[in-house]
Amino acid sequence: MEPFYLLVIIGVVLITNILLTILTTLGVLWRSPERHFIYERRLPFLRPVAQRCLAVLSTVIGNEYRVFSKVALTALMITDERQPHYRTARSYLHHSGLWADFVICGVADGHPLCVILLVPTAPLTRAQQRQLEFLRHSCESAHLPVVMIQEQAQYELDTLRNQISEAIMRADPRRQMTGHFIHEEEEMLLAALAAAMRDR
Q: Strands, E, within the chain: which ranges?
């Protein structure tokens, strides 16, 4: 009988140790906001093609609006509680980890007016297509117009300006782009982009 009791004691000790480990881990997770972890800055924050697009967008919208990059969907929208699968939709939104490439906002109030999505030149996989469609549908269901831009080395500024202006008008008819942009900055931007392409 003694070996049996010895095995029981060892089993109890092992189970107790496992339970203590689990409880300690859960305690760390629960207290994580109070702890100080070490992280590293994500570099590069933007891909070169996104950097070029950001420079173009900043010039196109002028001083009337601001452009923000890599904005998480959870910062832009919340789940509509009236829909049948509210909890599932909310969980998917929070765990998708998706973001809008660029968001155009008003200067005075920071109110998001339209979303810019970059479409790669390379053929999209099925997963990428579903992701892009989810982004577009989610933004439009939240009454955030979407402008989809094909990634490219140079952009037609007037066309891009018109697309963004129409999107802003759909989001808020009271707003409109008056075209207060600086031509000198636009010319300098085009020259810089052309030089960058020559250096590649």
A: 65-72, 99-106, 112-119, 146-150
pLDDT recorded at residue 18: 84
Residues 6+ apart with CB under 8 A from 192: 55
Query: Which residue positions in the chain have pLDDT lower than 50?
Result: 179-185
Question: CA distances (Å), 49 to each of 130, 149, 190, in order?
Answer: 22, 12, 14
Tell me whether the omega of the peptide bond preceding residue 44 falls within 30 degrees of 0, making it cis. Answer: yes
Task: Compute the distance between CA of residue 171 and CA of residue 175 in angstroms, rounded to an integer.
Answer: 9
* Beta pairing class for 99-106 and 112-119: antiparallel
Give the rounded percent of residues in the chain with a pLDDT score beyond 70.
Answer: 77
> What is the C-alpha separation between 147 and 131, in angstroms, rounded?
16
Pairing of strands 65-72, 146-150: unpaired
Q: Per the structure block, which two tokens stand in for 28? A: 């760390």
Please tell me the predicted confidence (pLDDT) of residue 23: 66
8-state DSSP, 145: -
Write down the pLDDT at residue 188.
57
